[in-house]
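Possible regression after last week's pipeline update?

I re-ran a chain I had predicted before the update to compare outputs. Posting the input and the new output here so someone can diff against the archived version. Not blocking, just want to make sure nothing changed silently.
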Amino acid sequence: MKKTAKIKLSEYLGLDGTCSIWLMNIGLYPEKMQKCSEIIKRLAKGPEMFFGHYRTDGINLTNEEWEQYSQGIPAYFLKNGRHEPLTTEVMTKRKTKIYSGYLTAGSLPMDKITPEMLSKIFHYYLETVCFYPTIDWMTFVESYRNYMGHGTRDYISQGFTDFLFAYVDSGDFSISFDPNQRDKNMISKVVQEVLEERANII
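New output (post-update):
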């Protein structure tokens, strides 16, 4: 019997007033992953998207997919946008630790091909955040260096973007926004409509 997708929707209100809508477990259903791209396309617009990646993962990939993605995804970023590995310092109780190879900043044009790549990108990295920026590239890079200690919790309140999208390796996808600037009911309706749409059969 075919497993029926059970994607739970949850809402979370942050301390800074940011609202996040979570699509729990969507990553467990490969046939549903393209819904994330469709939600992004319907809610936000822009010529370029910024990406922040935390480590690689591949737990949901076959060996063949892992080999393909590990070669193809960085190459796709380098050919079409930017792909910048970052070094970061993290303060511990006793000393400062330097981490290399954990964080990568990237950017891609939002053409016809990039949205089709998103599900592969989400599965390849342990955590990915992406957004249409209202800031310049260097501001993003310097901010994302602090991801391991601070995350991206203030990207909305600081005006870096109107919508912040995130995917974590547990299979959860989120949309974060300022409910004082964006209609939460409208956003929830768009998400629900996308989830309920049936894929076109060619």
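Follow-up from reviewer: compared with the archived run. Residues 8-194 form one domain. Marking as no regression found.
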